[in-house]
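Lecture 7, part B: from sequences to assemblies.

Below are the input chains for today's worked example.
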Amino acid sequence: MQAYDLPDQFGHFGQFGGTFVAETLIEALDELRDMYAKYKNDPDFLAEFHHDLKHFVGRPSPIYFAERLTKKIGGAKIYLKREDLNHTGAHKVNNTVGQALLAKKMGKPRVIAETGAGQHGVATATIAARLGLECVVYMGLEDVKRQSPNVYRMKLLGAQVVPVESGSKTLKDALNEALRDWVTNVSNTFYIIGTVAGPHPYPMMVRDFNSVVGKECKSQMLELCDRQPDAILACVGGGSNAMGIFYPYIEQENVRLIGVEAAGHGLETGKHAAPLSSNSAIGVLHGNRTYLMQNEEGQIIETHSVSAGLDYPGVGPEHAWLKDSGRAEYVAVTDDEAMAAFHNLCRVEGIIPALETSHALAHAEKLAKEMDPDQIILVNLSGRGDKDINTVANLAGITL
Amino acid sequence: MSKIKSVFDSLDKKQSKALIPFITAGDPDPEMTIEILHTLVDAGADMIELGIPFTDPMADGPVIQRASERAIANNVGIKKTIEIVKEFRQKNKHTPIILMGYANPMEAIGIDLFIQLIHEAHVDGVITVDYPPEEAKSFVEKLKEKNIDTIFLLSPTTEDKRIKLIIEQATGFIYYVSLKGVTGSANIDIDQVTERVRNIKRYTKLPIGVGFGVRDAKTAKEVALISDAVVIGSRIVQEIENSSRADLISNIKKLMTEMKQAIA
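Predicted structure of the full complex, as structure tokens:
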């Protein structure tokens, strides 16, 4: 494969990506693009970023051989990249540390964020507290109700949580509202987007900050196994954890890259959050062109997944490109399959995974069986499941 | 010559300014939308912006968001919006209609089909909020072939270099967004708008309309003095939202008449 250098200067990944925003946001995006270009290779900025990743986040996160799970499933060896061990419990913090440092360099005293399950909101509130920035988090009213512990966490960290009552009252509406705030408060505010979506340069910038995950894997796999894995699996909502681990491997074509979407109640029911696996149409939302769950007149339709973090009707434009180019594969896993994999990892390995991550685990179990025992699967264990215990208990009919 | 241009030309001869109200198609329902359109014209609208309902109107404030939600609840989408224009055209051939919407519904039915349908419905201009000029080149060309204007937004933060880029592609008029924010935000700073409009005029002979934040007759009057057109959106949509069905038409007529007198 030739050197991978996407996106182009306008943020296009082939026909995907770009900058589809109202004119009122262009100036802010131009400023952000220029400042990111200035700092992305700046030694002092990078030193500060990596210092915080090491001492505040706790990186590098280990890779762990899930020996008992491997034995139980039979087939390829399953390794886990332990992003769940990061401060705040998920990969989300890598990106927020990067963007918050950039906000500070740009002299913006106020940061805003959107959040679905609350992980990105918590990660943003955390780094805002660490850097002394004012923090406002937009969260759909439905999610505020579903994820009350994370709402309280954000408040403990000094953030203001604004419930969003427009539209479907979930993640996509929180993103709309954050964009509206940004348009209004452009001069003093930095918008920390939590996934590889949004207008250019966000998909690129979030990927870059989170690619520390894949870069670590490359050297850790050599240390542990003397070689790279045969397949890398990660769950995909917007797709930030998947891009973080995929990106450093894109040019290494003998490593399969597999993104796992949320099939919810099943792709055939229409109640899912899997735009790539369900062959959704291409459209424009939140500033970029990508595959989108929508009706025939372009209205965005409501998604369903047991995991709030995958409950998003679009997907990062780079994933759309990776799918069309054939470099990555995308599959979907139902709520029930994800729940089974969740319980499996709890009991067999003593790790409570996030429900989002459980989707990747469920597919790893299927795939391992089809592969040889000397082959290796690396799963991005993107987050821990403490935040999900209420959801899991509710599904079992238990009130905590 | 486009209908939008000829309206501006004839207003120019009378030394008067255009009044451009905005409403969302299908709010409060499709039949009322047509009645409201005729009412707006009767009360002095020189052209009308008609919003295409969208689930995710990220540049709009809460008032127009709710209008979109009401319209979608009535099953009004992009095709029905165009149907509404067709029906309006049965009685009114002369008032320019400008569709304002987001890229996704237009792309969902296909840009070529969209342009064909709006051409058949005698739509005169299109504002696609989330198509900046860099992403809109072929769209603008295709609209030009049908003699439909593409209206672009300029914002308080748009730099001079960019003003030139946008003006190269814009036809019909330039829509100057008078404040940093979404539709229906705070009141505008008239001194700042005056200066910005004067600056834009250095680059173009196109008429300049000012919108976002024109909430009362006094502001409308001030804006009319320094621009070529006054766009009033959220204030009218708010009237639709707050009026009972019985009072709706008379309330809109009253509001529009006030605005018309103010800018006359």
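Note for the exam: Chain B has one domain: 3-263. Keep this in mind when comparing with the next example.
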